[in-house]
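Incident review: delayed structure delivery

Summary: a single-chain prediction request sat in the queue longer than the usual turnaround. Root cause was a stuck worker, restarted by the on-call engineer. No data loss occurred. The affected request and its eventual output are reproduced below so the record is complete for anyone auditing the incident later.

Affected input:
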Amino acid sequence: MSQIIIHVDMDAFYASVEMRDNPALRGKPLIIGSLPHERGVVATCSYEARKFGIHSAMNIKDAYRLCPNGIYMHPNFEKYRAVSDQLHDIWNEYATAAETIALDEAYLDVSEKAKNWETACGFARTIKKRTREEVGLSCSVGIAYSKTAAKIASEEKKPDGYFEIPTEDAFVSLIIDREVKVLYTVGAKTAEKLRHAGIRTVRDIQQRQDLVIQLLGKRGQWIVEQAYGRDDRKVTPYRPQDAKSISRELTFQENVEDFDFLRDVLVLLSLSVERRATRAGLYGEGVSLKITYADMKTITRSRQVMPTRSADVILTESMHLLEQIKQQPVRLIGTGLYNLTGEPYHQLHMDELLTGEEGEKLSEIDVALARLGRRYSLNFADNLDKIFTGETLYRTIEYMRRHR
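Output delivered after worker restart:
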């Protein structure tokens, strides 16, 4: 066996963390995301809430109609990241390579450390045991010969599941008569396209593989390979520089028509993007602006820049982009960096050429923050770090909107 891969997936992660920390929430329909009176979606929910038909990415208003007596909470991402670090520290002990998919999910290549299937299965069971004992949470674990099979294995007995798929034959036997959506690369739209062509199950994919490739091209070829259990992809550790962009966006609870207020919001969003880029050690070669209007039409604009993560640059370029768009009620605004690189670019300013050091004048972002502090009676000087934790940025901007 050339590869042995474990896929670990936490069970309703955000909701489980909240129930762990507050036992009074256990056994109740808990929905993490926006609150019912707000705009937004469900981030995740407890299994009790799922019985009502609620699922992640569902509009929060739809979730409330299905479960008006549920408990609705904002997510606490700082807490979830801290728990995630604990989890990955445990999981990574057993792997020579770990591919983090999300805060609560990872592929682990245990081939070299385990040497054989039996030892690898022991690793998988130990990961489940330690996750519960040391972090107080349950996870579902799948172990298999490939990434595709390992992911399907972890889904097989959720929640708190464990399942093994040792070979291609075992994989095909398991899924052959299931709907095509069992293959994780087949989403709802692709499944509908295949269904219209009379392809409903994995067996149909195998029997009509030429048609699948004709309909879907290279993606169809990959789906056919999966249907036969063939997948030799390696576990690839995530690198921050592999991300396509770093951005921050915000949906307002009421549409905003005042573009001066949008400029104020861009000050805080630009600082947030700078902090994320700094944490990742990355720079962007372009700045983007995203706007969703009240009619749900979304537009994006972008400008190329020398590699930067400076909030000054992000703000300046975002302002320029904002000036170029049609002024009508806005539902969402976001800004970000794209074409990411690990190499900075620094050009000396005139005052540096004359004095040999950077000038002492306030940056544009500092001036903008001072202006916002006066306008909204907020103390950014002492509280800026707190603003970018959890949901505080969202609440700060909503306060600004109501008091503008």
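Verification: The two ends are 64 Å apart (CA to CA).
Action items: add queue-age alerting; document worker restart procedure.
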